[in-house]
């Protein structure tokens, strides 16, 4: 007589080699001969390059002191960065007026950081304050000359402050101009379409360094007598016109990706051109090209270093001007690492924000 046991036995635990750290390494680092070889190469590079670099930058580095004589550890001399930090941030801005730049930095952070927080309230109003209110407040604070604030010439601006001014104004101005140019290039009116095509192809056909040089040297020749723009304003005009042409092509790609049925649906609703674009077409097109838009913004942020050719000292130019000081020798590596880190922080922040925005606006187009 056989006895049948209908009770179920408890599940056996998974093998040790399939879970935990060992399981992760087996599935991700040693899952195939190719991955095994790549893991060995990666480990070799880490021990050969990254560990010595970490030792140079942290463990053997010098962080405190008054001059280069304090750098005796054989590692990085971050004393140089600490000594010249004010110049790297403010340029030649008067020491007594640093508070004005600091207020602008605080306002920028207070309006920008909430955009990265998903549940933060009133983000739309903060965004409008960032795009409209901050430029106005920054203008009166940085330039001065009104409300009892001392006037500071733009030639004294420099460092991180100048980099942020150039990139922020370029981003805020290039996006709407690029949208208008993209719409004009797809217009049914030949004159409007021809003007937009000519503008886009003209600015995309020359390098930015030539645009900045021409804006600095040639632009004053075309202005009426007695009217003159300073170097900063001329650089801003050149950067905005140059980047708006690239932005227009990015947005045009988004417009062409919208199915024809969306245009027909807008016409069926009786919407005019501007209402159909503003309510139906553009929101979808801009959402599709968020990576391209942010990529253009990142390129703009990095291209601000080219203003050196017209005598403006951004963060990179400030570093280059400091490392030739006889009081500091052999600190070029530290200066360039600091400049690269500053650019990486801002560019990585824009990249992460764009990815968060894509996830938030994802409605099924992603494949």
Walk me through what this model shows.
This protein has 15 helices and 1 strand, in the order H-H-H-H-H-H-H-H-H-H-H-H-H-E-H-H. The chain has helices spanning 20-28, 33-59, 79-90, 98-112, 123-143, 159-185, 190-204, 208-217, 219-222, 231-257, 260-268, 273-288, 290-303, 315-323, 332-361; one strand at 313-314. It is globular.
User: Any idea what the CATH architecture of the largest domain is?
Assistant: Orthogonal Bundle
User: What percent of the residues sit in helical stretches (DSSP H or I)?
Assistant: 55-70%
- In the residues, how many domains can be counted? 2
Radius of gyration: 27 Å
Element order: H for helix, E for strand = HHHHHHHHHHHHHEHH
Strand content: under 5%
- The rough form would be described as globular
Structural category = mainly alpha
Helix tally equals: 15
Layout of helices and strands:
Blueprint: H1 20-28, H2 33-59, H3 79-90, H4 98-112, H5 123-143, H6 159-185, H7 190-204, H8 208-217, H9 219-222, H10 231-257, H11 260-268, H12 273-288, H13 290-303, E1 313-314, H14 315-323, H15 332-361
Helix pairs in contact: 3-6, 3-14, 4-5, 6-7, 6-10, 6-13, 6-14, 7-10, 8-10, 10-12, 10-13, 13-15, 14-15
